[in-house]
Amino acid sequence: MSIHQDPELKKAVLNLPLKEKDKLLLRLISKDKMLIKQLHFQLLEDESDLEQRIEHLRKQLQKLFDIGESQVYNTPSMSNFVGLSKLVKQASGMVNEHEKITKDKLSEVEFRIYILERAIMMYPSLFGSSYQSAAHKLQKYIAGRIKHAVSKYEKIHEDHQFDYREHFQEILDAANATALKDYIKVLNVNTNL
Predict the structure, then answer these.
(1) Do residues 150 and 190 lie in contact, with contact meaning Cβ atoms separated by under 8 Å?
(2) How far, in Å, CA of 167 to CA of 150, rounded?
(3) Of 7, 38, 150, 165, which has the fewest CB atoms closer than 10 Å, so is most exposed?
(4) What is the reported pLDDT for 9?
């Protein structure tokens, strides 16, 4: 139940003495790890900290995909379809957390493009036609990631879009040259930036 659904409770909480409200607030905050990270960023960090976070995540993603290269191969097999899917999901989770904490849309777009680049350009054989269900799951998932990245890209300022357009278009063109094309079409994604 939400506090907004119980107006009497809301009024009672708002009328608590300040010291009690502070204690209650700190107890509630401590139960939400993401909220703690968001508050730390908002209250204690500045622009240079954001740049450090961006650089740190850039290195983490690069390391993740570099390690992935030794475990996921560019040959169509169930283990490689599943492995690449897990790799992209892990990388996407890292970007999701970064965006939730920093609310930095520009670095989010950069990282989403990077993930697609590493997945599509380094593993083209995994995006060919296949009868394996693992291949279809991977391709459907990547098409969803493409749709998500395109929608994020379209929301940034046109000057920043210009900075990413050529590189992102190359990745989208490469995707459209594979079996991903059909999944992208079903999702009605505009891949002409």
Answers:
(1) yes
(2) 13
(3) 7
(4) 86
In a domain, residue 24? The reply is no
DSSP, res 126: G
Token output for 164: 């990413």
pLDDT for position 14: 87
Of the candidates 28, 85, 94, the residue with the CA atom closest to the CA atom of residue 63:
94
Does residue 123 belong to any structural domain of this protein? Answer: yes
Segments forming the whole domain that contains residue 85: 46-186
CA distance 188 to 166: 21
Of the candidates 109, 83, 114, 85, the one whose C-alpha atom is nearest the C-alpha of residue 98 is 109
Positions in the chain whose pLDDT score sits under 70: none
Question: What pLDDT does residue 136 have?
Answer: 96
Measuring CA to CA, how many Å separate 168 from each of 77, 130, 174? 27, 26, 10
CA distance 94 to 187: 24
What CA–CA distances, in Å, run from 193 to 92, 112, 150, 179?
Answer: 22, 15, 9, 20
Q: Please give the backbone phi and psi of residue 120, each rounded to the nearest 5 degrees, phi first.
A: -75, -45
Residue at 23 is within a domain:
no
Instruction: Please count the structural domains in the chain.
Output: 1
The set of residues, in sequence order, having a beta carbon less than 8 Å from that of 124 and lying 6+ positions away, is 74, 174, 178
